Amino acid sequence: MKVALFVTCLVDVFQPSVGRATVELLERLGCEVEFPASQVCCGQPAFNSGYVSEAKEAAKQMIRAFAGYEFVVTPSGSCCTMFKEYPHLFAGDEEWERAAQELAAHTYELTQFIVEQLGITDVQATLPGTATYHTSCHMMRLLGVREAPFQLLSNVRGLNVIPLPHAENCCGFGGTFAVKMARISEQMVDEKVDAVVQTGSDYLIGGDCGCLMNIRGRMERLGHQVKVLHIAEVLNSK
Questions:
Q1: 112 lies in the same domain as 169
Q2: What is the model's pLDDT at position 176?
Q3: Which residues of the chain have pLDDT under 70?
């Protein structure tokens, strides 16, 4: 099965290890992974800040970059959700709306793809210890991916996943929200950090690098020793 990797800006710039883990995992599961070099930002920061015309230009480039692929896979529920927004972004523009619908229909968040398209719930991963999982807002609420991460984590050898108190609460990142509303964001991430520490877990796992970057940064500033991992890194562990 051939898939195109939509790597995302945060993975490319801040966490290339997540991109590497994603490729290695998909290849181990029998996929041929291609990386369209012309991909750029999905346009979500501009779109969320009200710069719709700029977001459309980014979206057009992404539609061109991934045209013709049957499967587009990304290690980000948030950025995957932005692809799903493209048909609304181009509503009324017959040419681009049709292309946007096709891309949206073929784009999957990583765990969603593994469980729903590959039909796999056990990737033969091993990670001893205890962990808790942060359900990011876009991935859970907008994309609707709720069970796939837990199905995959439940089969990781040696890993005991502990429920995260108030798991549905936002971590306070929200892209540009963390910049525009820094004090509120700080209070929100403090609540999230307290919940993580309360579990006594060795690891915090999540599916969106923005959330994980936000939570990791706050935990490090507060001196907590919980290791933060993207779920791709966990599923690729042996």
A1: no
A2: 81
A3: none
